Amino acid sequence: PAPPAPAAVTKDSVLGEGARIEVPNDGYLRLRLADGSVVRVLAGSDVELRRMRRKKGTDHFEAIIDVRRGKVESEVAPQKPGRVFEIHAPGAVASVRGTHFDVSVDSDGRVGTSVTEGKVQLQPKPKAGRRAARGTLVQAGHGVVLDSDGKLGERRALPAAPDLSTLPARVEDASLLRLDFAALPGAVGGYEVRIARDEALHQVVRNGVSKNGRIEFLALDDGVYTLGVRALDAEGLVGPESRRTLTVQAHPVPPLYQSPQPGARVTSDSIQLLCSQTTSAEWVHLQVARDAGFSQPSIDQPRLAACRFGIASLPPGDYFWRLASVMRSADGSERHGPFAAPQRFSVAATPSIGNIFVIDGNENPTLSWQTTPGQTFRAQLARDEAFTDVVREADLAQPSWALGNLPRGNYFVRLQARDASGLAGPFSPARKLRIGGVVQTSSGDGVTSSDGELVNRP
What pLDDT score was predicted for residue 444? Predict the structure, then answer.
């Protein structure tokens, strides 16, 4: 008869003797046996429950598990005489009586055994026509590797538990879970990492291997988790586990920065702080401070309805700004999300134009003005005060502008200053300028026609 079709294993599933378990590369399975022992089947493993039985009329429980590929972690309940708990792998058998240990089988057929509590007897399986090789007793804190030829390696000390004390207690990134910790010199094989909803690490939600001191997983829902990390040596033997509580509080997500750009240099009267508000947010909390720690905010707006705010009150200097979303929960309470990573910007003194002077105000006038060293200028001359009809413009390195060869008439002029970095201030107010001489009275006043225009001098 055809073998039964594979079935998904769910919480509280009951598996019997002969069950074969294949865990996907992003999976994790925890089994509780009838005697209270716990077996964790890690990602990418192929395991069979070869024997799961209790001897009739006794409390002698017998458990034999075959590991074809991958890795299992075992927490074995103390065993009375006559009870059996064995992990079988290609070429070896690990038998125990109350211990915490791991058995792994790699793609080359090597079997690794690591013991973190108690002791394990590792016995090579005899090959056809040969005597069984001598086994070895592996004590807590040690491990051993059996190669694919059935040769036992030397017992070796396991790598130390990683130091997780530098990890943050809170994670606020809604897109990716990324953590960095200090790498161990002996952890050349990387680190086994798992994250669970409970302190005992039974309800595992993330499971994987890190090649260095960086942990990266898909983001988690908000909540409190337990992180467990174990170091791997060059042979793949794994050391004791370090654990740390991890709180994820990433929602509501902060708004997106729009303007100014990171590191921008702006003038306080020409810019607003702008962001893209999230749909779930009722308000935006905006802060500006001199330091990235926001110890004394210069601006603190906790309930902005629109994501924009002017900074005219800020004196020149270097600043940081940050944003958070505030939402209203179903019960009416407010929920404050995490702040986005702060962005830096600088406020510069606004480049400006001083008093403007007109030299030779007849046919070919020259304009000059007060300035600050290092400034350059943009000058415009137009027929109208709104500067929709610009007839001449120039970029100037000196604070003067000679205007020649222009038809007689009334014009408007305006100037814009730029500092040495290229930061531009606003245009000066438009100033009316007359090109060409006019008829004057004896007192020096210009003579006007019936329509109020000055009369040109012939």
Answer: 47
